[in-house]
Amino acid sequence: MTDERYLKRTVVKEIVKSSYLPEGERSLRVYLPPGYNEVLSYPVVYCQDGEDFFNFGRIATTANRIILDEGVEPFIIVGVDVDKTYRTAEYSPGGDRHEAYVRFFGQELIPFIEGKYPVRTAPEHRLLAGDSLGGTISFHLALTYPELFTRILSLSGAYYDRSREIMEAQKDLSWLEIYMIAGFQETAYDTGHGIFDFLAINRTARSLLEARGAKVTYAEKDGGHQWGFWQQELPAGLMHFIEVE
Hints:
This protein has 245 residues and is an alpha/beta fold. The protein is 39% helix and 22% strand. The chain has helices at residues 4-7, 50-55, 59-69, 87-91, 98-116, 133-144, 161-169, 198-211, 227-241, and strands at 10-17, 25-32, 44-47, 76-80, 126-131, 151-155, 177-183, 189-190, 195-196, 215-221. Strand 5 (126-131), helix 6 and strand 6 (151-155) form a beta-alpha-beta unit.
């Protein structure tokens, strides 16, 4: 049974204005940890697919648990919502909204959060997290803004051909730290845009990243390309990056 303390979550809804996104704004949900105090400063996790991370990944409940029971330093989570209609266009490097989303993220979202919440601003205290294409866009955000992002939590990243070409073109990724998980049952997943072997994709991406000096923590486990798998892996992924007090 879930401990009642885990369910006392503080999640604030926000809307950030944008001159890059066609809609002119984007919805966020911001998790504030137990004992939140504006005079302190906190590490911050930026999640793609924000609604899914909160609803299916249960990341707020997980954060409460690891903070309260595992002694993990309290941290803030920013879930960036996405309209699924435009998800591929925004998250894929060839998508027609990709550049606008990248600019929005680095030039509008980050200043908005850092102007309103007491988050730490050093790259080692910012974590990008994403599932599938959310892992992909996290990688491309880090490549675009290495001064902002050097750490990625990638859950079954969808590193398709173009992303792997971009990886291959990099000469030095020694500044990047990435935690990757992939499932043994992800070898023939139908994305709606084709059937892909995400296990093979992640193995290849791992090799490309390691060959360019990235610090890669990689694991394969029983699991499919779905939140039932990723939800179970979130605690270990978060605790890999966020220190125990």
